[in-house]
From TrEMBL:
The chain crosses the membrane at residues 35-54, 103-125, 134-151, 163-183, 195-214, 234-256, 263-280, 286-304. The lineage of its organism: Eukaryota, Metazoa, Ecdysozoa, Nematoda, Chromadorea. The keyword Transmembrane applies. This is Nucleotide sugar transporter. The keyword Transport applies. It comes from Caenorhabditis elegans. Keywords: Membrane, Sugar transport, Transmembrane, Transmembrane helix, Transport.
Length: 328
């Protein structure tokens, strides 16, 4: 199950990267408003989660579950307010960063979340990482950076501020690391609330918050041209795929963890770069091959340590608990 989710997240992320790049970089008369895309992604995710919750219950019990787990437990619902709001800020910041940084720089810097997730894992979840694991994370970071470095050279475009883009991506990475670990703590905590219901709870906050962001940032365009300005089939596909990606992240956090999620996304970067070979006539260089090898090496390094811990536990006759088994 865990492996299947990680493979799915890797494939999902590879297509996501190509789609989002294509939707923003192509020549169109009307470019869609990114805050609207973020809001619609939240709406779509909410509908998917409601549908999935409804699949598990009869219609009557579905309404009852919504009432008891959302309205009648305001404290429990409020717990997810923090990651919900953070994810909205993060998703919008990533669009800001992508507008000010060239694609390669944006993707290298956004790999900072490998470290922020690891640091918050240690601080919030109190899991310790040994030197080999930190080393594997560092190798992963260098590998992904090399893969991206071989990308296009930065374009000198007017109106772009690399400093703004850099600050946006660094803040977004810190938020991603914190929100992911916080959500993992809530999800693997004691309250028996399903993953999909947790996401419906998040939607209670994220939908109004992302809608307000449209009017705070893009009210002029939206008032003049409407919410769906620039929306064509490619944009809809990107929004839908973003939603599926968000829910895949949620499933990955539940069945694996945030660090495993970042490894899957790093492999996705390599796959999407390979995808560009066919789609955008991209030619891989030695730097790319070196970076890709380092990423694969880091995965073996990180997971071989985990397998060793599991094997040692078995040798000593220790049977890991379900929670530990997930971590392993
Ligand atoms: O990898 P990263 O932390 O950046 O991924 C976070 C993404 O996953 C955000 O777009 C967030 O909205 C989405 N997500 C979600 N539901 C969760 C957790 C994350 O939609 N329960």
């Amino acid at each position: 199950m865990k492996t299947a989710i990680l493979i799915w997240l890797t494939l999902q992320n590879s297509i996501h990267t190509l789609l989002i790049r294509y939707s923003r970089a192509r020549e169109v008369d009307a470019m869609f408003v990114s805050t609207v895309a973020v809001w619609l992604t939240e709406v779509i995710k909410c509908f998917i989660c409601l549908f999935l919750v409804a699949q598990e219950e009869t219609p009557r019990r579905f309404i009852h579950a919504l009432r008891t787990q959302i309205l009648e437990q305001p404290y429990d619902t409020l717990k997810v307010c923090i990651p919900a709001m953070i994810y909205i800020v993060q998703n919008n910041l990533f669009y800001v960063a992508a507008s000010h940084l060239d694609a390669a720089t944006f993707m290298i810097t956004s790999q900072l979340k490998i470290f922020t997730a690891a640091i918050f894992t240690v601080i919030i979840l109190r899991r310790s990482l040994n030197r080999t694991q930190w080393f594997a994370l560092a190798v992963l970071f260098v590998g992904v950076s090399l893969v991206q470095l071989q990308g296009t050279k930065a374009k000198e475009s007017s109106g772009e501020s690399p400093f703004v883009g850099f600050v946006a991506v660094v803040v977004a990475c810190c938020l991603s690391g914190f929100a992911g670990i916080y959500f993992e703590k809530i999800l693997k905590g004691s309250a028996p609330v399903s993953l999909w219901m947790r996401n419906v709870q998040m939607a209670v906050f994220s939908i109004p918050a992302s809608f307000s962001a449209i009017y705070m940032q893009d009210s002029k365009t939206v008032n003049e041209y409407g919410l769906l300005y620039g929306f064509d089939s490619i944009v809809w596909l990107t929004v839908l795929w973003y939603g599926v990606g968000g829910l895949s992240v949620a499933v990955c956090i539940k069945y694996a963890d945030n660090i495993a999620k970042n490894f899957a996304t790093s492999v996705a970067i390599i796959l999407s770069t390979i995808g560009s070979i066919f789609l955008f006539d991209f030619i891989p260089s030695f730097t790319f091959l070196l970076g890709a090898s380092l990423v694969i090496f880091s995965i073996f390094l990180y997971s071989s340590h985990q397998s060793m811990v599991a094997a040692l536990g078995r040798l000593r006759g220790e049977i890991p608990s379900t929670k530990e088994a997930f971590c392993l």
